[in-house]
Write a structure and sequence with these properties.
heterodimer; A: mainly alpha; 16 helices; B: mainly alpha; 0% strand
Chain lengths: 368, 73
């Protein structure tokens, strides 16, 4: 039995996916140092390569209607191996959530509130996420369109305000970055904004109607990618190759907004927008984590686990990396490697095994 | 340290009475296990006891032992 009793509709799934992908807008910075002015290309390449895998997640959710990934693993791989794969999935959720909580802490310490204790920022942020998750999936889904609007309006409005400072020759020469760097950048984009959508295997089981799920999920993915592209193009057009030397190219480009000396220092806008978007992404990760753990352990409700898991996540986030440099360095290597089987191997394999074994059997019996 | 203990007392009071009233023993057991782990980790952080990072271990395993890494520059 699925641990989540609430139901969401297809339109809410669209906004959930869009705002989830927009939540990774800060993480483009991991790629910028590698692919420089060709970052927009790796975003597009990442999207194109990610779509078949994304469709495999959707097909899995459609095939195993009403089930989450822990239940699917148990059914396809058996009780023992299924649980091992679910533990791998939970480890991925725990680590990725802690990285995202840490991202918010680093953002605030570096740009907005340098004198505030790091652990305090992490604890307050995690407590807010815990509060939202305790309210349930339906509440998150109901407000998802507001986050998606923030994720669209802020990049587009800052893009327009910076048009006079853009130099589109910054995109030239094309194809200058070596292939291995482009491959590395594409891998980062593939894993971080797009591959992380595997988290929706914990959510898609709560859809009330799966008929238009693929179309809505893909539109959501495209809206999210458009925001990432707008930010990437804006940063490259404004900063050129110097974007690779800034800690946060987005902050640096927004600081250059100067409309009649009235509209200036708008970096706070980016600070708020990015905090809001990462908050939503963290809520989705946190929700998936608590429901996956509860499902794995056969609990009736996930709410008692929310606060203890938030406490664990705060400490992991505070100690997982020694510095922002360490964070970027490990994310660019092990951070994207360890999740490759989970994102790109296990879902298509699960689908293949399910097809060969004719799973789920009761559903097939009904249709026959 | 005092804040940590206060926060964990609040978390305990928010969850445990309800779980006992509803006789959800399995949920209570899982809650207590995670609660103790979270408290010990919080205590270690407060007392500056080094907490091993799983990502550093993974980085060593993937990059150094298995040799799977992207070239730097």
């Amino acid at each position: 039995m699925n641990i989540e009793k609430g139901k969401i509709c297809n339109m809410q799934l669209l906004f959930l996916i869009a705002s989830f992908v927009q939540g990774s807008v800060l993480l483009i910075d991991f790629t910028v140092g590698i692919t420089e002015h060709q970052t927009w290309m790796v975003i597009l390449a990442g999207l194109v390569i990610a779509i078949p895998f994304f469709l495999s997640y959707i097909t899995l959710a459609k095939r195993f209607k009403g089930m989450n990934v822990v239940q699917i693993n148990d059914m396809v791989y058996g009780r023992f191996l299924g649980k091992v794969i679910s533990v791998y999935y939970i480890f991925f959720l725990m680590m990725t959530l802690s990285f995202n909580i840490r991202d918010v802490g680093e953002l605030h310490i570096t740009f907005l509130m340098p004198d505030t204790p790091f652990i305090f920022l992490l604890a307050v942020f995690a407590a807010t996420c815990a509060y939202a998750v305790a309210k349930g999936l339906e509440v998150l889904a109901r407000i998802s369109h507001l986050f998606a609007i923030v994720g669209i309006v802020v990049p587009i409005s800052t893009f327009i305000l910076l048009v006079d400072q853009m130099n589109f020759s910054n995109f030239l020469p094309l194809f200058e970055v070596p292939f291995i760097k482009m491959f590395h950048g594409t891998h980062i984009m593939l894993s971080i904004p797009f591959g992380e959508t595997i988290v929706f295997l914990m959510i898609m089981g709560s859809l009330d109607d799966t008929e238009h799920m693929a179309r809505n999920a893909l539109i959501g993915l495209l809206i999210g990618t458009t925001s990432l592209l707008v930010v990437s193009i804006r940063n490259t057009a404004v900063l050129g190759n110097t974007q690779a030397i800034w800690t946060s190219p987005s902050f640096q480009s927004i600081r250059l907004i100067d409309i009649g000396t009235i509209l200036t220092r708008m970096d706070f806008l980016i600070g708020i927008a990015q905090t809001v978007l990462i908050f939503f992404k963290c809520c989705i990760f946190f929700y998936a984590l608590v429901t996956a753990v509860s499902q794995l352990l056969g609990l009736k409700s996930y709410s008692p686990l929310v606060l203890p898991l938030a406490g664990i996540e705060v400490i992991i986030a505070a100690t997982v990396f020694q510095s922002p440099v360490d964070h970027a360095s490990i994310t660019q290597d092990a951070g994207i490697m360890y999740s490759v089987p989970l994102m790109f191997l296990i879902p298509p394999l699960t689908l293949l095994i399910a097809k060969i074994r004719g799973l789920p059997r009761p559903e097939r019996g009904k249709g026959a | 340290m005092i804040f940590l203990i206060m926060i964990y007392i609040v978390i305990f009071l928010l969850n445990v009475p309800g779980l006992i009233n509803r006789k959800e023993w399995r949920e209570l057991t899982v809650f207590l296990v995670l609660y103790i782990i979270a408290f010990i980790m919080g205590l270690m952080y407060t007392l500056d006891v080094p907490i091993p990072s799983p990502m550093e271990g993974l980085q060593y395993l993937i990059a150094e032992v298995l040799g799977i890494k992207y070239p730097k520059n």
